Amino acid sequence: MPELELLDYQSHSSLRLDLANAGQRHFVQVVSEEIPLAATEYPILFTKNPDTGAFYAGAVMGLEAGTNLFAADGMLPGYRPADLVRQGFFLHEGRIAVAPGDPVFVPHGKPVFDEQGSATPALQQVQHAMQVLGRGLPETESMIARFVEHRLIEPIDITLDFDDGSRLQLDGLYSTSLDSLHALPDEAALDLFRRGDLQIAYIQAASIHHIRHMARLRNERLFADA
């Protein structure tokens, strides 16, 4: 955890935020309420926290670590997940804290406070993102726990071949098993439906088709850079 400071105008009036900060994020955590929006543009898959082994959901934005195929110039033109919006900001004892040394803060960025000490649109977006994560993380953990209970999460094999002869294999990713979902007893399926989990499961599984688009983007850039 980086060194944090509680955010206030007196201490951080000159703080400026670089919004073109998505270029190296290839996998961004999302919460359940974001999945219907994010899934229109990105594959949504599950992976495991390396420290706890717990599953979490994320938007796949790159096929290789450190590369975002949707934000070549660092700007993300499409849906921007809350975890990406709040880069450099954290929730500490119910208040927003900031890590001033985070590379997201640059002299030429967007101001966080205006001259009157009020939150700028950039900070308002961060505040909204923190609210989304605050309510969404526990809800998503509960949803994933139900998926695990019903054995609905399974590993997914993604191997991609490119025109230059290279091959990429994406490891450590998981998806919803529609076969297992369809085999659920009626009572369990009805419970997932009433909780909204069933909709999320189908949306997540359908979003995998975006992987093909990402492979085309990478293939085009291989030859554009040659």
TrEMBL record:
InterPro entries assigned to the protein according to its UniProt record, in alphabetical order: SapC
Organism domain of life: Bacteria
Protein name: SapC family protein
Pfam family, one: SapC
Taxonomic source organism: Croceicoccus marinus
